[in-house]
Amino acid sequence: MSEVAGLLHGPNFPVAGVPARLAFHGEHLRVTLEGGAFEDVPAESLEVTVTGFDDDTLQLAWGTHGHTHAVTIADSGAQRVLLDHAPASIAKQLARGHSTVHWHRRKWKVVIGVLASLALLALVAWWQSEAITMWAANHVPLETEISIGDGALAQLKTKHQLTQEGLAAATVADIGARLTAGSRYQYRWYISDDREVNAFALPGGIVVVNAGMIEAVSSAEELAGVLAHEVQHVEYRHTLQQMIHTAGWAAVLAVVLGDVSAVTTIVLHQLGNLRNSRKLEAQADVEGMKALARADIPLGGLVSLFKRLEDQQRRRGGEGIALLLSHPATEERIAELEQLAGTLRCGCRPLGVDWPAVQASVKQLQPKVEK
After folding, report:
1. Nearest to 25 by CA among 38, 37, 36, 41
2. Nearest to 364 by CA among 165, 92, 68, 148
């Protein structure tokens, strides 16, 4: 009959075994080494087990003169040949062993297939992470979004003095009302005592302008450019999307399951870690410029602010300005804004705001004293 290849293990042999040829001759298993026959083993004395890292190897073991020897067969074709020619005394053991090997092979194929599928899904999720979080953000009910914004606002109020009173707050609200006419959101506008040059939007229609921003801009038109941009982060749910993105799959799963309280809890913890992608920033740029044009507000405010802040940052030796950290004013971005301004129709008129008076009004806003 045809011989099959295997490995012989036992005393005086390497741990990995030595090559051997195996064949059943009647009621015996003949084990042949390269140098000649090693032993004819009675089939009824063989013990069949499954071994190998992946449980894919048949082992036939026997005892000789107080020592244990074994042959292992890893190749599935060889296992099948051996089984087909096995005598009745060992056939059932071999059949069970071969069936176990076959089951383990199928198991590992399934496991590898599942792992490969998960890896592929992870790759697709990473590649399409923005699309997934956008989908999740768009499936958050409006009342939940407003609740998340209220929670974030409450956190801010523990660290900063926020006000809706005074000339600066009134000016921000007036400009903001022109930019948000017809919106589904009921916007709320706040001035913060924070002296960092920054402004930001929270989910649900909350926009906070730092006192440092009021002091840094040179006109109401520059402020309008900032507000127009931030409003788009609300309108297109960018801030909510980035909160979910930063929170990870837990937030996405909470959205899928409709767990409103979990969504709120998860995303509020991400308030200090938000950075919009370049794609979202570009969308806010474009839609913000369109909002300025619709409101007949001059379009060059954001560009002039970016240029001046970039110049200040260079003169400071690269010291970071908060607005530029979250909204990098690259040459490409400034050029795109200028080009876009040239394509929009606008019956633009100056806002006619006494800007020095507005700036003076924030000087009396004192930092919050923590108790």
Report:
1. 41
2. 165
Altogether, the residues listed in the chain come to a count of 371
**CA 260/CA 324 separation, integer angstroms:** 33
> Rounded to whole angstroms, how far apart are CA atoms 101 and 360?
82
Distance CA 343, CA 341 (A): 5
Structural domains for the chain = 4-108 (2.30.29), 129-362 (no CATH)
Q: Is residue 356 classed as helix, strand or coil in its secondary structure?
A: helix
Neighbours of 86 (CB within 10 A): 20
CA distance 250 to 4: 54
Residue pair 203/148 in contact (Cβ under 8 Å)? The answer is yes
Q: What is the pTM of this model?
A: 0.62
Of 171, 180, 187, nearest to 220 (Cα)? 171
What pLDDT sits at residue 265? 62
List C-alpha distances in Å: 297 to 98, 165, 234, 368: 80, 24, 20, 34
Residues 97, 102, 104, CA angle at the centre, nearest 5°?
Answer: 95
17 vs 337: CA distance, rounded Å: 73
Residue 315 main-chain phi, psi, to 5 deg: -70, -25
Cα separation of 55 and 89, whole Å?
24
Residue 332 CA: distances (Å) to CA of 207, 247, 337: 27, 30, 9
Distances (CA, A) of 131 to 44, 278, 288: 65, 14, 21
Q: Could you state, in chain order, the average pLDDT of each consecutive group of 10 residues for the chain (371 residues)?
A: 85 87 89 82 89 82 86 87 86 81 71 67 52 76 85 85 94 97 95 91 93 94 95 90 71 62 59 65 91 94 87 72 66 88 90 95 76 48
> Are 4 and 22 contacting, i.e. CB atoms less than 8 angstroms apart?
yes
The H or E element spanning position 200 is strand 199-202
Residues 6+ apart with CB under 8 A from 223: 171, 172, 175, 209, 213, 214, 217, 301
